[in-house]
Design brief:
The protein has 595 residues and is of the alpha/beta class. It has 3 domains: 144 residues, GMP Synthetase, Chain A, domain 3, CATH 3.30.300.160; 140 residues, Beta-Lactamase; 272 residues, 3-Layer(aba) Sandwich (Rossmann fold), CATH 3.40.50.300. It contains 22 helices and 18 strands. Helix 9 runs antiparallel to helix 10, helix 15 packs across helix 17 and helix 17 runs antiparallel to helix 19. It is globular, with a radius of gyration of 28 Å.
Length: 595
Amino acid sequence: MAARSGIPPRNGPAMLIDPKESASVAVAATPAPPQRIRLGDVLVQQNLVSAEQLDKALQLQRGTGKKLGRMLIDAGLITEEALAHGLARQLRVPVVNLKSFPLKSETVRLLAESPARRHRAVVLEDKGEHLLVGFADPLDLAAYDDVTRLLKRQVRIAVVPESQLLPVFDRHYRRTEEISGLAKALEEDIGDAVDFGVLQASVGQEGAPVVRLLQSVFEDAMQVGASDVHLEPQEGGLLIRSRIDGVLQTQTQADKRIAAALAQRLKLMAGLDISEKRLPQDGRFTLRLRDRTVDVRLSTLPSQYGESGVMRRLGQGDAVRRVDEIGMPADMLERFREILGRHSGMVLVTGPTGSGKTTTLYAALGEIDAEQQKIITVEDPIEYRLPGLTQVQVNDKIELTFARVLRATLRQDPDVILVGEIRDAETAAIGLRAAITGHMVLSSLHTRDAIGTPFRLLDMGVPPFMVASALQAVVAQRLLRRNCDNCAEPHAASPQEAGWLSAIGGEGAAGERTLRGHGCSACNGTGYTGRLGVYEMLEMDAALAQAATQSDPALFTRLAREQLKGKTLAHRALALVRFGRTSVAEAMRLASDLD
């Protein structure tokens, strides 16, 4: 491989992985002529690998075709950071940490997505007279020449760790312009009588703008990790939004005339009735995007300006997490595992829609030996498809309801039954009866907190003795946005935040150190990346069971609060604030939902 050695860095301070390296960065007025440099020679010269290790890696490389640097990293002979710094020292250019560098989308997109991904290059900064471009492989002369030709500007090189590039590409090469362009193309077609015909239920099908538009919308949602996509006809146009980390973000706005075409196409994909526009409908379909299978649940709702559609990405292809990976506190985790080891009883996971209940239920299944026990799940829809389990999809259209499937399930000699959701008194009664008669039953319920769950079952008409004798534990949960690791910094609590800290954590809590992200390129300016689970668990001991049997809400509530003292959702959220994992504002948002 060849490189342009001596290409100077950008003027001004460089964003270095190691600030000490800045002393070795030379600034030249113009690029020096290129020199041919071999990566292996650079690494041996800098004592990053031995000659013997290099020879062995080169022999392996001939059989695999991989780049030498990747071979050395995969073999554990060198770290990605050490490789980047070694190249930077040789070429006298900066090493840029993309996690903290203030990237701008308009600058990154000066280089089109395809060549950026192909050459593993990103435009970091526009300095007017030149562009600073980060390369994962700065010794690739062909990549440098092609990038320079495409940018039509003088290019100066920086080194970037390759593993940091993919998240940058996914964040900044959003498909907003593509989606807007396809929406306009679809608007032009609306004037004709578009006959969709019997189309394959595959977003990847080439052809009509409506298909390409939906493909772009889904691919964009995958790139940014969106859980839901919302198509919302409004008076002024069609609003397309994505839910990222629990918060909706607008993708684009288009002419509302295309809403009907999108709704019709989605219904075809989900096998719904395209002629029915007056009633809500629910369905699902499967996509193949980027060599990955994605299950999508579709819900349509007739609104004032057309049919609103919400598409939720389900868990097919995602790894099921274990209970020690979902964020349960250690003391609660130990008790939860002990309860799951019992042979009978009901465990309920509660919380609002989108709070991660299904993730917790499947994590609980991971604690149970599926080889020695028969596990049957009854779901709507099936969010994770797992080997060794008997999974049943309910279908209200043919009266295959939760209650009906659950009754049939009991004749299948199960040890463990997972009911996706308890929606009515009949399902609740059958599930509790199964728990009494020697089955472990896991399910979810929509309640605000753990204490209110037994009363919700009683309100549904379940006899008190069944609740008292069958219910083993209730786990209530929420999801909080996690502070961005790159831009989180000490935060001075506002008077309202200080008041909340004192109310939950005691008098000294208001003065404790807290963190909050100020917003950076890694978190798209939000200050948050990803979400954390917050949990509380109420165990039905003898005293609580007696209070439930007597239908005494005051006594039950008092006893439950004593058991949960210092371990409520609010206290667990405060613990995450103290660890710097989330902000006071996020914890207060959770607490306001419980008031």
